[in-house]
C-alpha cells in the first residue's frame, strides 16, 4: 500500500498513501495502512508527498488524512484525483497543494524535489529527499520509456547531476526481468494492427489509470475509422481529469454509451474497465449479457491490454470463458504479448539509472521477496551496498554505517467497512466466547497453479504474546493444505483454510491466540 515514513531530527514526512483490494475476503473490501504503530511511536507527519496518482499510492489518503491534518503535495493529475476523493468524503480539498514536476519545496528539516520519470500514468515522479547530510532518491514507480505517449520522456542529465546519492529506495517489481521494458509507443502500434484485423465491435479493456493506453486506443481508432465510447466509472473519472489537464487532446468526441446501438458494429471501439475479472466491472457485465446498452455477439472482439495481476488468474479465465461462449474473439497477453507494456523497470533500466545517480546504498521496495532479492543482487554487482529487504512494519535506520533494521512491528490489516476503517477480525469473527491469549499474524503469499495453490517466498508470521509454535512444521502443514484445497478465488481459499487453521493450532497450542490471516497474491518466479 506504499506508505513510507521518513524521519530526521524528530520530524517526519510521509510518502504515498495507497490501498489494496482484498480479493481473499467476501465482497473484496478495501484495506488501508494501519496507523497504530506510528500512533504508538508518536509519529505524525508534517506533510504527505504523493509520487503519482495510482490507487495503490493515493487510495487511502482520504481515509487516513483526518488522523494527520497535514498538507498534501501532489502533481496536477494526482491532485485532481485526490480532490475527487476528498469531495466524496466531505473533506475540504484546500489541503491538497499542487506541485509541478521538477519543482522543489521544504518541510521542516526536509528538502524535496520532484523528478519526473515515465510510468503508466502521467506525472509520475521520483523524490530526491535531503535531510542533514543525507540525500535519498525515492524512485516511486517508473521505467525508461523513450515513447511514453502521455507526458514527457526522461532527462538523463537531470539524474546524472544528482550523483552520487547516499541511498536509493527503489522499485523492485521487474528486477528479475532481463533487458528493457517495452514502450507505450510499441503498444500503440500493436493495438492499431490488431484493431485493423477486427470486423465487428471491439472492446479494449485496460486499467483506467493507464492514460497512455487510452491515447494508444485513440490513435488506433482514428487509423481504423472507429468511434470511441467509455465504460466504467473509474475510466470516465480518469479521462475527465486527464482531459482537463491536456493529456488526451488526441481523444476525439466520445460516443455516449446509450447511443452505441445506433452505430454499425465496425465503427465501434469501447474502452472498458474489468481486465482483472472484477465482478462489478463493465467487461464482466458485457460477458454476462447484463449491460443495458450493449450486447456482445459472435464476430465481436475483446482486447485485454493489461497483464493479469497475480491471484486474478481464475476470475480472468472465467471471464474469458464467458466471452468465448458468446463467440467473441479474444486477444490477450498470451496470444499478443505486444498488447501490453509494464510500467516498471527491467534490469537494464535499473542498471542505467544507477549508473547515472551512483548510489552508495539501496533499499529494495515493491514486489515480492524474490523481486527484492534479485534487485539486491543486481545492486551488489554494481558495487552498491544492499544489506536487507524490508517487511511491512520495519523501522530502519540509515546513518554513516549504512542501513540497519532497528525494530519490527506487526501490521494487523485495517479494512474499510461501511465508510469506517476497522481492525480486521480474528478468523472466527468473535472473541467473546473463546478468550484469546496473545496474537498471531499470518501473511501468506500464494500463487495459482494448474493443480491448486502454492506458497511463494517467505511465510510472514508474527507471534506476539502467544505460546510458541514450530514454524517448520507449520509451514509444511500449510503447503499440504494449499495443495489439497480446491478453490477458484482467494476468498474461497481463505474460507476453506480458516477452519483447518483453527483446528491445527487448537491441537498444538496451549492457549489459542487471536488469529489474523492475510492471503496475498504473489507472482511465481519466471522459468530459468
UniProtKB/TrEMBL annotation:
Keywords for this protein: Exonuclease, Hydrolase, Metal-binding, Nuclease, RNA-binding, Zinc
Domain Metallo-beta-lactamase: 1-180
InterPro entries per record: Metallo-B-lactamas (IPR001279), RibonucZ/Hydroxyglut_hydro (IPR036866), RMMBL (IPR011108), RNase_J_2 (IPR042173), RNase_J_b_CASP (IPR055132)
Listed Pfam families: Lactamase_B, RMMBL, RNase_J_b_CASP
UniProt protein name: Ribonuclease J
